[in-house]
Amino acid sequence: MTYAARPTWAEIDLDALIHNLEQAKFFCSEHQRILAVVKADAYGHGAVPVARKLHSSGVRDFAVATLEEALELRSAGISARLLVLGGCFPGQEQAFIAHDLMPTLLDGESAQRLNAEAVCQQKKLKVHIKVDSGMGRVGFLPDQLKAFLPQFRALEGLEAEGFMSHLACADELSCGVTADQQRRFYAMLEMVRSYGIIPREIHLNNSAGLSAWQCPECTLARPGIMLYGGLPGPDLADRLQLKPVMHLRSCIAQLRRLPSGSGISYGHSFHAPQDMTVAVLPLGYADGYNRLLSNRGMGILRGHKIPLVGRVCMDWIMFDVSQVPNAAVGDPVTLLGTADGHAILGDEWAEQLGTISYEVFCRIGSRVPRRYLPKEP
Ligand SMILES: Cc1ncc(COP(=O)(O)O)c(C=O)c1O
Fold first, then answer.
1. Crossing angle (nearest 10°) for helices 47-56 and 67-75
2. pLDDT 10s digits, 269-280
3. Mean pLDDT value across residues 42-60
4. Domain with CATH 2.40.37.10 in the chain
């Protein structure tokens, strides 16, 4: 049986994605390539269509966070080089080898497990050795690396394809941490090479690093958020001309004429100051429209910016459309993204919510279908 969907969707503008890819490439030196970060379902944009589009535009290297995310891409027929940033948990070794996935090597214990499986299968598994140059999260610290390298040389089933680290403060241009991290990164790279281990790929920069910090030794850059049109940080606004990729839209389900003094939504946190026309849209916090946008969110309707009134519900939100002539049931309202020359950016939501655009995009729920534009011929 076919039926019409609830009129709430997220448009994913694949042309904007490619525009942002070109921006990322602009910051790459001649010998650097893009390793596109498509983890967390491409930050909520849909990992398979995003990876397909990037692949068809020449990107050959991708990163995801988990084995499951990698397998989703493989099941969709994406045969590109895939790096799993989250490493290999016990019991996942066989799958890495069977599906030609590269684990990020975060410790000696996982190296032993992966090596044992690779040797057993008479395969050589490519890994990227990750060092903690100052992020304070995962990867080998200098002393750990020193102890690990002689062991690594003896692991016949593993090949050091890559050497990598992650930046903690690259979005803060006046912060000294990045320069310190770069120094440690290069020192640890030298240590690796001094053991005769010569990784082909070297990478450090995320979106912020790529747009602000040179990495002459690097062969890859790992942008994520900038591909999706989010700013890696406010300091970088002047350097990047990004286009939003996700546009969250929903159509007016009901129009209600409410008399002055009417309370709207749970808790009556809003009372109509005069007679009002209120549009009700079929989406809510269960779709990733954050409840903290209650009485603060904005929409775009027929070229007008309209304010959200009352609390965001699980499945509904309400807007004051009194100032919009001819507003009608079925009209599309843009909640995130652009329409009619207006924009409501993920970075604006993020500021209102005290978070980052990464989280805004990731939280647009699975209940919201993604529609990809332009449509494939
Ligand atoms: C290891 C690693 N590299 C690259 C990225 C991409 O970062 P960004 O989205 O800031 O470009 C991330 C994202 O969190 C990451 O964890």
1. 60
2. 999 999 999 999
3. 97
4. 246-373
